[in-house]
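Lab meeting minutes (informal)
Scribe: AK
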Amino acid sequence: MFYGLAHLESQFHVDNVHKVVQLAPCFVPYLVPEIDSKAVADATIMKYQDYGVYAFNGPNWERDLQTICDNFPKAICDYYINTTGT
């Protein structure tokens, strides 16, 4: 919701959203030690969208995975290859 309000230039939110309830995350993802480091986090957090990746394992996943592998640390590429089976 925050991303949509900050970045989408459409009238959709104005016309359709009347109330929003923001809840804290209901889980903490497990990250393998190879990618659970400050350097990897600094290189990736909130940057996937800058490269056109908006969903993991989505309809464009083969292209998005290649984009991730081309632009992020090898540990990140390996992580998504191993967790998505692609």
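Next up, CB showed the second protein from the same session:
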Amino acid sequence: MKTHITVALAGGLLSSPFASAAQNAAVPAADRISVFKAPLVCPAAPQIGCGSASKPILLDLEKQPGVAEAWLNRAGTIIAVLWKPDSNVEAQSHVAAELKEDRVTELEGDSRDQAVKDFLSGKGWYHAAEVDRLSEEEAGIIAARWIRRVQAKAALAKDKAAGLERAISESLRKDLTGETAGQDQNPNRLENVSRKYLDQEQLKLLSDAINKGVRALPNER
């Protein structure tokens, strides 16, 4: 995904699936869980899942009859569906068929068993309402990458670089989590938040850095 300084980007804390209910309900049985291989790794930050891509899928899943909860693992490679106790085979088959349209396929055998075990461990899974944490992390990674590109060509004071990184990260976070959706967007907002920290020549360097895209280039992180 490429952007530039005048165009909006389009499109944390780990959660335990059972932490909030640990004292009130038993951990669900493995047969109430289905796990699916998902292509939801973040292109800009391949160490995490993509919050903006996964959120609509997870929210849609939780609207389906028979689905109690939907979760994404931190890596963005697996979706876990917790079925309601009264869920039937027909409802589950319907959900699996719909997920195939998003290139999400059900795991079976040893792969399924390992994924379910990981899910039941309660470590590093994000509920539909929490994947914005991943988007927040992605925004920080992209902002830091752009700042490093500028710093490779121009010296920036430490406090200015830190302030600029925070400002850009916050702007990107709003884009990635949908906070700016449906609003009158200022196409120059990245430039505007950067003017506090950069002179005109440095702004051009930042524009160049953004135009190189959000993904890491060779020898970047």
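CB comment: The first strand starts at residue 33 and ends at 37.
No objections, moving on.
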